[in-house]
Amino acid sequence: MKSKEIVLDENHSITYSGYTETGNFYILERAHKEDYKTRYRVWNDDFKTSRTLVLDDKVDLSNFDSTSESGAYFTYQPKAGQWDLVSDGVLELNGISEKNYSVYHELLTDGAYFIIGKEITGKKTKFFSEGTLVSQSSTYSASDYLVKKVLGSEGIEVHSIETPENCYWNSSATRVLDHDDSGFWASFVVEGNDTTRTYKLVRFSYQGKPIQTHDLTIEVLDPANDKFAITNLENGSFTSTTVVKRYGLGNTVGSTDTDNYSFATDNAKGHIKFDPYDHTVYIYAGIKPKRGDSGILIKKFDMKGNLLWQRQHTLEDTSLHYINSANRYLSFDVYQPFIGVSVNSTKGTNYCDFYVLDKDTGAVVAEEKYKRYGFYSQSRHYNGLSAEYEIKTDAYKNLKLERSIIYTALYDRSFQDYLKQLNATGEYLLKGIYTPSGFNTISSSKKGNVISFQKFKI
After folding, report:
1. Phi and psi at residue 89, in whole multiples of 5°?
2. pLDDT tens column, 292-345
3. Are 131 and 157 in contact (CB under 8 A)?
4. pTM
5. CA atoms within 13 A on the CB side of 45
């Protein structure tokens, strides 16, 4: 195990942290008693500082958007509906705002910044050809646009996107799955009901032209008995509505109650995930039969649309539903050596189950069901780092853990032994990510100003 400790400055406090696409770890820090308000730092796979940026604006979870592949730069919203790009401490992109574009997706490579959305010009619509304005019309158009900003260049390019028929760009059901120097892959939900879902997998150039198109379909194995369950799949599965109730007589104000309701969207019935290690895609959905235990159905495809395998697993003693169930989560995580599937209930803490699946076959290779568990949110402890779970067993009772940590402990016995040893020495929080060279973890004790990097060979 390779390790390194970082001592945090007393004049800085972590407000947000995460991993980039390449596995680099970054933190946003609020600066105190400095001539700037925000510091952004990135560590690479070898735990060396690869980027430090400072900014006069306050940036934290509330207005931070995303990072580039390696974390070389990031975007944030200095005010609602406006996006700025930060690289080397210089604002290189201004004027991209909701007054100009309705932004659905951001895409950041290490050399360019892209947004996908609709241009807003009042009742007038601009028409572009190869990034150049050629005409204006007072006729409304629903065309989509790709805005491109190359770092170090002047101005921006705007290209119309040729979206396939019956496909629509939005911020939840549509996904930008992968990108490289020549283009990007996106997915659209084109058809869905209680037993069948079809996704359109499309590769676009950075000029908005479709290059490849494939239809991918998932359907329940027993339509007479099975339906897709309504579950929270972390993909815009639910939408929230606030209802205000006022009580009073005549012109009196009376009292006010506020009720929040969550309603399932069509996205609660399935999801698509990209595998950046194998360059394949998975479609998965929860299954609720009329008779028997709930389950999960998974199909794996290559990028040419060919089916590689299909598996359905029964989730014993786990209850998924047809009806609204925002408190029932089904997570599907793709790592370099395996797939991780977890299901848990946040209401009544009825179940919290973890499964490790073989990527080549879809078979379950390890599993664990936790009856005593809880959830952890960011606090002033653990240097401001966040995790997800509190597994209340003797082996893990002093630890706050991310899903990747729990899966890896099931997959690798030596890593599980490491967690047990750490648990016996104090209270810690752990985050983890797979990189081409191993499994990297970030840990912090409950008290103190030190975070530790560790690399494991899994």
Report:
1. 75, 10
2. 889 999 999 999 999 999 999 999 888 887 676 788 899 999 999 999 999 998
3. yes
4. 0.88
5. 13
